Amino acid sequence: MKILLVDDIASNLKLLEIVLGSQGHSTRRALNGQEALEAARREAPDLIISDILMPVLDGYSLCRAWMEDGALARIPFIFYTATYQSDEDEAFALSLGAAAFLRKPMEPDAFLRQVKDVVARTQAGEIRPQDPAPTDEGSFLKLYNERLIQKLDQRSQTLARQVEELQRAEARLRLRSFALDAAANGILIMDRQGIVEWANQAYLELTGFERREILGSRPRFLESGTRKDGDTRAMWDPQASGQVWRGEIQDRHKNGMQRLFQTAISPVRGEGGAITHFIGIMQDITEQRRIESELLQSQKMEALGRLAGGVAHDFNNMLNVILINSEIPLDTPGLPEPARRRLLEIKAAAERSADLTRQLLAFSRKQAAQPRRLDLNEAVEENRKMLKRMIERDIELIVHPGPGLREVFIDPSQVSQLLTNLVVNSRDALPGAGSISIETQNVQVEDTSALIFGGLAPGNYVQLTVSDTGCGMDTFTLAHIFEPFFTTKGEGKGTGLGLSMVYGIIKQNGGAVSVYSNLGLGTSFKIYLPAYDSQDALGDPAAEPSARGGDETILIAEDEQPMLDVMRLVLEGKGYKVLAASNPIDTVLLAARHEGPIHLLITDVVMPGMNGKELQHRLLEARTGFKVLFISGYTGDILAKRGLMREETHFLQKPFRIKDLLGKVREVLES
Question: How far apart, in whole angstroms, are the C-alpha atoms of residue 26 and residue 17?
Answer without folding.
Answer: 8
